Amino acid sequence: MVELKFLGMDFGCVMGSLSKGEFPEKNCLFPLISKLLGYAIVAASTTVKLPQILKILQHKSVRGLSVVSFELEVTGYTIALAYCLHKGLPFSAFGEYVFLLIQAIILVAIIYYFSLPLGTKTWIRALLYCAVAPTLLAGQIDPILFEALYASQHAIFLFARIPQIWKNFKNRSTGELSFLTFFMNFVGSMVRVFTSLQEKVPMSVVMGSVIGILMNGTILSQILLYPAPAPKKGKKTD
Predict the structure, then answer these.
(1) Of 48, 151, 167, 190, most Cβ neighbours within 10 A?
(2) Separation between Cα atoms, residue 115 and residue 186, nearest integer Å
(3) Residue 5 bridge partners (DSSP)
């Protein structure tokens, strides 16, 4: 069988079967599909938060958005990316975290801008992140602490969505939340469960995607359920 590999994807097995007029076997086809879907997720992640960013800039408002939710999201992405780098997982299994983290930081910066003046607690949280994140991403912490941090990452993502879900419920409105951004997150989480199982990544990584399905699905249902009122100027964030 001729080897035909590209970016860790083995096309040789599938092409060999097709050239013989046979349908590829499951253990030959599924790994390739997993890799292709993994890279598709990474590619889509480069613009997943762009609709949310553009919606805020268009309306010049962050009304209805929970800044704590978005801050926790940045923290969760940072821990997840650092852990995957530390474990040496294939890029197709976690590459979206690179682009999601960059966009999440930009999004928080925009929310801060439209929430001026910021409260003291907000500045403290931002400075604390800037101090800790580089050390975490460089993997310069005790391995046991690293495992504990990653174990807490699922709780962080869970609590990153709960304040926003509660705020939506209380206001009977989703404010400036973008349907497209949460829809892409929802679909991406579902696909990532399949690719993670195929890549044989730790089950803790798979659980992160399952939580993503539940939380993003809940917010999606709220966006569909609650009407979108006219935008207002953002208020002070603390």
Answers:
(1) 48
(2) 27
(3) 10
Rounded CA-CA distance 142/161 in Å is 29
**Tens of each residue's pLDDT in the chain, 238 residues:** 445 555 555 666 766 666 666 666 667 677 778 778 888 888 888 999 999 999 999 999 888 888 889 999 999 999 989 988 888 888 877 888 999 999 999 999 999 999 888 889 999 999 999 999 999 998 888 888 888 888 788 888 888 889 899 999 999 998 889 999 999 989 988 888 888 887 777 777 788 889 889 999 999 999 999 876 554 544 444 5
Q: How many CA atoms lie within 13 A of 101 on its CB side?
A: 17
> How far apart (Å, rounded) are the C-alpha atoms in residues 226 and 170?
11
Q: Which secondary-structure segment (H or E) carries 208?
A: helix 203-225
C-beta separation of 212 from 100 below 8 A = no
CB atoms within 10 A of CB 221: 13
AA letter at 199: E
Terminal Cα distance for the chain, rounded: 62
CA–CA separation, 169 and 225 (whole Å): 10
Separation CA 69–CA 47 (nearest Å): 20
SS3 state of residue 6: strand
Cβ neighbours, 10 Å, residue 62: 26
- Crossing angle (nearest 10°) for helices 96-113 and 26-45: 20
Distance CA 50, CA 64 (A): 18
What are the beta bridge partners of residue 10? 5
